[in-house]
């Protein structure tokens, strides 16, 4: 009965990676599609005060899942999704301080999970392996970056692996379930290509500028560990209460290319850890139709954020309608999220460059499930 709409999560997360298909009855196949249209804008700090224009780009996400029930105790699921992504650009001609700065990240994840339900017990355990393929590019521009404005970095596609494990408790007669899952970090090892303007290491003078930012070098990027707790329980024969808590250690997600670090002493991305709470209620209106409403809250961190992640926390509401006929279940959902105000910040010590306020996002999605 749970709703479906794309996630608007912490860091660069686009899918909260819950294991819903693993707990479906019998054999189960699912396809999902979502679209998110965010908006974030602001103005430079200081004397310039130029407007940034809309920074965030719209994106689509697709997913596929298959769950197989081998017997009463053993089951397994295979899930394919796009958990991470970023599409951001400060338009040139807008922000004087950050115009031309942008990031483009895409990913594909394949997760295989096996679950064992203890006989004659409400408890179960699950564990699995995740493969994460990622690629991306970053560019910096604007007066805030000084002599390195015009720098860009791109990475070749890389696939790396991690694991997950968890426990669950169920009482099907009242629709109750609690599950907790830990997901390990995944370390992608890229070959980064950096390009940038000439750098004059001794300042103005007879010595010419040097191409210190140009080159190729290894780059390790760690997708952070996370904890998920999800629960549901029937509160009447036709009404279900559900919710979740998700914590992600985004502070370990760093992009520190070798040459940029040597020249500036700074990397490209720094993020706040995120904790996201969700609570909702679903109700069956008939044998075919049910609906759900849920509310999410992501606690804000420091107002001083990376220019490449210019929001801070969120509050959202999701409405969903579910149609069930025979073995087919179609879920549609729409989400509105208010994204927290933030101050894009650079340097050591950090200096706030701009104010981004009034950010929000709309999302819509559809999920088709088939039980057999």
How many individual helices? 1
- The helix/strand series, from N terminus to C terminus, equals EEEEEEEEEEEEHEEEEEEEE
Q: Separation of termini?
A: 18 Å
According to CATH, the homologous superfamily is Outer membrane protein transport protein (OMPP1/FadL/TodX)
How many strand segments?
Answer: 20
Structural descriptors:
single chain; 372 residues; mainly beta; Porin; 1 helix; elongated
Brief sketch in words of this structure:
It is built from 1 helix and 20 strands. With 372 residues, the chain is mostly beta strands.
Secondary-structure topology with pairs:
Layout: E1 28-44, E2 59-69, E3 74-81, E4 86-89, E5 102-117, E6 123-139, E7 152-171, E8 176-183, E9 186-195, E10 215-223, E11 226-236, E12 239-248, H1 258-264, E13 274-284, E14 289-298, E15 304-305, E16 314-325, E17 328-339, E18 343-346, E19 351-352, E20 354-371
Parallel strand pairs: 15-18
Antiparallel strand pairs: 1-2, 1-20, 2-3, 3-5, 4-5, 5-6, 6-7, 7-8, 7-9, 8-11, 9-10, 11-12, 12-13, 13-14, 14-16, 16-17, 17-20, 18-19
